[in-house]
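Weekly structure sync, notes
Attendees: PL (lead), two postdocs, one rotation student
Agenda item 3: pending single-chain targets
PL asked that the sequence for the first pending target be pasted directly into the notes so everyone works from the same version. It is reproduced below exactly as submitted, 532 residues in total.
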Amino acid sequence: MRDVYDAIIIGSGHNGLTLGAYLARCGLDVVVLERRHEEGGGLCTEELTQPGFLHNVHANYHTFVDLAPPQGDLDLAGHGLEYVRPEVQMASIFDDGTALTVHTDLDKTCASIARFSEQDAETFRRLYTEAHGYVNLLLGTLMYQPPMSMKELTRALSVFGVEERSEFLSVKLRRETIDTFLDQHFTHPKVKAHLAFHGAVCGYANDVPGLAMSFPLLVGKIDNWNLCVGGSHRLAHVLWRDLAQHGGVLISDAEVSRIAVEDGRAVGVVLADGTELTARRLVASTVDVEQTFRQLLPQEAVPAELATAVETDLLHQPWSLFSVHLAMSEPPRYEAASFDPDVDRAWVVNLGYASTEELDADWRTVRSGALPGTCRPNAAVNTLFDPTDAPEGHYTGLLRQVAPYALADGGPAAWDEMGHWYGRRCIEAWQRFAPNLGDGAILDWVPYTPADIPRKLRNMVQGDWMMGEVSLANMLDRRPLPGLAQYRTPVDGLYMAGSTQHPHGFITFAPAYNALQVIADDLGLEAWWRDV
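Predicted structure, written out during the meeting:
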């Protein structure tokens, strides 16, 4: 460990590692500091159940990895990163034994939807095709550049003539819920339920006003779920490799206790063991806003207005995720396979939501601090597509159910008593659809509750795996606060580059990539990636 670096980055999640890799390629002397013993943050993959069973504890579905600029800029595939895009991407299985499947083949997806509604199948084809036509514009406008205001977005849509030519894109979507969008364009409740379920898995609740604005983009990537071969942690390894090969340093077990500020400028950090590191050019935080501005910075360095906003105005997701990780001796065989055999080959599976009304009711229940009366988790068996994540002839399983972080009766601590009971309920819900998954097929399982999330990853405040509410009030130039939305902070030389920033959490690389643009402009770095 040296004492002086050009750039100090706090946190080695995928955003911290990505920013570090780019800056190292720019010729900066970079160090990435990680509180935990391993890099990766939400990319952690662990043997939670039994030896040889690799469970993705947080990030399991990588939907943007092939669309994100760092994929090519940092040559992730050249470093050994491999993804699988399952042929049958998603399924919804309903209580009456019917099922709907989404394929990488659009014709097959439309054929599945047509079994419920031929009209909806044609509407979906038009929506999907249109969304794909605008995907580069939408990604460039909404994700991979510093955030614009809603007015600027409206102007951009107008300049490109999108609204005039579009059947689905409209500025009025900024006032609408996903439910409203679905009711305007689709007819069958099960089709609407599946599309809303897709939004929910991406962190977008279907009853929140304004989220319809992003929904066409979500539909455009409904068949872009990618599985990282060898576990999500492989992505962290690859990013670390690129950082190291270009002279960057990663230090684990290096908890930052303070950001050093002199004359209004961030000049380094102090570690928990007292080690002082100096930053010649910048400090970047990829941890949460609360840690950065209430714990790490000297309070005299934080303007009073910002300190108040951090205390009162930050918005977190009003729901979290309850997970069950399983070691199994066989994969699920769904009874609904008699209706559609492809459900047994699907990766992301909705177990039971048959209408948007059912989803809406669960959102209301969870926001009140209660548990849904009927468990309807989503399920995934990664081993169907990556046999390396379990011993030969065995399988890993994942169940996820929307749930409150703080239970109305007992708060977050109540999960310590409720976890195994609720995990059993989620397993029983899966067994209703796949009776072969009796106790003999389930070798071991562990619950992972909303309260466990911030215990492992401190920056996921209140179990908020998106690191900030996904809503119009916390989007674009309002995320996480208007004064911090452009990645700069009131402390000169200090930048925010984590998932608290635009666009949000998930494995998008976008917060780091967008912060990079701002840092490059401020430091006069050659933006070589714009020519790649």
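Discussion points:
- The first helix runs from residue 14 to 25.
- The chain has 16 helices and 18 strands.
Action: rotation student to compare against the earlier draft before next sync.
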